Amino acid sequence: MKKLILSLFVSASLIACTNQTAKETASTDEKSSTVEHIYKPTYADNIKIGDQKNVLLAEQLHQAMFAKDFKTVGDFFVDTVVFNMEDGSTLKGKTAVLDFVEKNFSQINIKNFKIVAIFPTTGDNGHQWVHIWDEADVETPDGKTTKFQWMDAFRFENGKIVYFNGFVKSPK
């Protein structure tokens, strides 16, 4: 009898804890959706987690670049792709982007590549993005190695990259 009462008590406790967690999550979601912005976003509001398939595409793009498989790299872009580079320049069109990628990645080796964070998002405008915070050691033709950190954002449409924003932190 004692075991039955103990079992009922443990079961009731577990159910109560589970229900409390669900209530706390719902309460947190309600609070975050009703926040009043100080500065109104001009591009997108109410951003949610996007399609995980795009995360895999972004990882495969990196894999192809590091392997210097530039034909495969080109398969990830639409013909009208736009790249906003970390130096403020803009590349327009698949040909310009591939020329840049081939010129720069054929001369270096990427070592110890790590993704610090990667997450897909979708804004209320329907745009699908993948945001990547990553780092690696970049080996130049003279054999010197330097650690770099990047923050990149890729916008996808129908499984292809249409837009890119890139930021880099490198040693001075």
Describe what is shown at a glance:
This protein has 172 residues and is of the alpha+beta class.
Descriptive overview:
With 172 residues, the protein is of the alpha+beta class. The protein folds into 2 domains: 1-35; 48-169, Nuclear Transport Factor 2, Chain: A. It has helices spanning 2-33, 52-66, 70-74, 94-105, and strands at 48-49, 77-84, 90-92, 109-122, 128-139, 145-157, 160-169. The chain has a 7-stranded mixed beta sheet with strand order 1-4-5-6-7-2-3, covered by helices on one side. Strand 5 and strand 6 form a beta hairpin. The chain is globular, with a radius of gyration of 23 Å. The protein starts with a helix and ends with a strand.
Kindly state the number of beta strands.
7
Characterize the main sheet: 7 strands, mixed
Report the CATH architecture of the largest domain: Roll
Which range best describes the helical content: under 10%, 10-25%, 25-40%, 40-55%, 55-70% or over 70%? Answer: 25-40%
Average pLDDT, to the nearest integer?
85
Order of strands across the widest beta sheet? 1-4-5-6-7-2-3
CATH fold title of the largest domain: Nuclear Transport Factor 2, Chain: A
Instruction: Choose one word for the global shape.
Output: globular
Order of H and E elements: HEHHEEHEEEE
- Spans where pLDDT lies below 50 across 5 or more residues: 1-12
| Overall CATH class of the largest domain | Alpha Beta
* Number of distinct helices: 4
> What percentage of the residues does DSSP assign to strands (E)?
35-45%
Radius of gyration based on Cα positions: 23 Å
Q: In total, how many domains does the architecture comprise? A: 2
> Could you say which structural class the secondary elements and strand pairing correspond to?
alpha+beta
End-to-end Cα distance, whole Å, is 73 Å
